[in-house]
Design a protein that fits this description.
alpha+beta, Aminopeptidase, 2 domains, globular
Length: about 300
């Protein structure tokens, strides 16, 4: 079985069997928070579930917040989450017997290639180790061209600040002495926000990304006692496989009464409508091409 190496108790962590609380105090009163909101020019909420209380509040209380208009900044998309039970064994029951066997088999195959170690990094002192591990994975990562804003030097101060506040929770997966996968996320109260991941292409046959996520979920449920994992914006097979809930989310721009962006807003609306129309045309043409190909066969 793989080892899981953790640091000491994180800021705001609780005793085993109890849910953690955030390490960040909330000194801002609701009145002050509302004043700050109204003072901003045009706040953007990049990802907001349409079933959330915040969405309902915005729709029902626009006048109280001096919101002139709610403007979508992109099309609605799926948001996958994992609603976590209290034990990892209970979580595994959402899979079929064959799926559970395959997951454990992937862990076993990687461990046959070398001793597996999962490192959980949360402290400010561990940020350098986390970035070094990401850099090692990056050299042969499956999405090297888009990697990784975490590994840039200008990101290290931000990660250290998050660690000081008790939010950072990163993971490195080692096979032998080789970094084969990583994940960076943020733990706030009882929710883990899964932000970025990557794995080494040279270990692709061992499914290191799947193994990392399997062990990461086990650690979060058993050690951090989380209630949910937010897999973030976008649709990916691993989110559907490991998650157990899906809902629509969207990014919105809140145009306040104090904001004078009329011409820019109209231009933005025109460009957004054109984008949606072009996407519909391309999807229609792709469907026709697929249907014609099937008829030809």
């Amino acid at each position: 079985m793989p080892d899981c190496v953790r640091e000491g108790p994180r800021i705001g962590s609780s005793a085993r069997g109890r849910r953690p609380t955030s390490g960040i105090p909330d000194p801002v009163s609701p009145q002050e928070r509302g004043d700050r909101f109204r003072a901003s020019a045009s706040p953007i909420l990049p990802s907001l579930p349409q079933s959330s209380k915040i969405w309902q509040y915005l729709c029902e209380s626009r006048s109280d917040l001096s919101v002139r208009k709610i403007v979508p900044v992109r099309d609605p998309g799926p948001l996958f989450t994992l609603e976590a039970p209290r034990t990892f064994e209970a979580y595994l029951t959402q899979f079929t017997a064959k799926q559970r066997y395959n997951l454990k088999r992937q862990v076993r195959l990687l461990s046959d290639a070398g001793h597996i170690e999962l490192r959980c990094l949360t402290s400010e002192d561990s940020v350098g180790c986390l970035l070094d591990g990401i850099s090692n994975v990056q050299r042969s990562a499956w999405k090297h061209d888009s990697l990784f804003h975490w590994a840039r030097i200008d990101c290290e101060p931000a990660l250290r600040d998050l660690a000081r506040k008790g939010l950072l929770r990163g993971y490195l997966l080692l096979c032998g002495k080789v970094h084969v996968a990583f994940a960076v996320g943020f733990l706030f109260r009882d929710t883990y926000h899964y932000a970025e991941t990557g794995y080494s292409e040279s270990f692709r046959q061992y499914s290191p990304g799947t193994v990392l996520l399997y062990l990461l979920i086990q650690d979060l449920i058993e050690s951090a006692h989380i209630r949910r994992i937010n897999f973030g914006i976008g649709d990916s097979p691993y989110k559907r496989h490991f998650g157990n809930r899906a809902e629509l989310e969207r990014g919105i721009l809140l145009l306040l009464e104090s904001c004078r962006l009329g011409p820019y807003l109209r231009l933005f609306s025109i460009l957004l409508a054109a984008k949606q129309r072009l996407r519909a045309i391309l999807m229609h043409r792709a469907t026709l091409t697929t249907n014609n190909s099937q008829l030809a066969l």
